Amino acid sequence: MFLAGSLLFHAFIILSGITAGLWAHILLRVAPEKVLPFGQAWARLALGALRVLCGIRIAYEGLENIPDGPVILAAQHQSALDTMIWFTRLPKPAYVMKQELSRLPVLGPLLIPSGQIPLDRAGGAKALRELTERVRAAAAAGRQIIIFPEGTRVAPGTRGHLQPGIVAIARATGLPVIPISTDSGLCWGRNAIRKHPGTVHVRVHPPLPPGLDRATMLGALENVYYPSTPCG
């Protein structure tokens, strides 16, 4: 039953994504300011389909820790779901994304015009400077910035290596950094076991203290993402 629902969901995502993307390209030409709200509506539809077809629900905790206005959300990254949920929960989300995504067919050319922030992961110091400039501009426009400090998807039950870019943009903008952890049904640890299947728990933690140095900030995020008592 789950396999059938999964296949139906993937078919829905492909067909609806292509259809929505084509309509969004029209919006980009006639009303570019509506591209982001249109994408947010599609994300809500997709998460609804995930719930109906696959029985997967998302439970949020601590949303009250997200202030109004600009902020940096330092989110754990376990699946493609993480790249979608904040489109449905924030008014003006701006994801820091690998620039290769902007070259995807249909949807890729819509990402930067909708306010998402590309990053050349092989660009070194120059790319980091460009990132901080784009993040400053997004913050000035009242956007909420979502960044994945792990740098890539890290499978549940495994430990990633945090990248220092989060420290650079926090210093450059002075914005509060709010850690976000995701429990998608696996206890963290070497012998990961499944718990509460069917529900993805997203927890928004209190903001980190301002002015943290690199080691302290990354250490604080590691403690959130990979707790010492994962299955307590």
From TrEMBL:
One of its GO terms (molecular function) is 1-acylglycerol-3-phosphate O-acyltransferase activity. InterPro entries: Plipid/glycerol_acylTrfase. GO terms for biological process: phosphatidic acid biosynthetic process. It comes from the Bacteria. Its EC number is 2.3.1.-. The keyword Transferase applies. Pathway: Lipid metabolism. It holds the Pfam family Acyltransferase. This is Putative acyltransferase. It comes from Acidiphilium multivorum (strain DSM 11245 / JCM 8867 / NBRC 100883 / AIU 301).
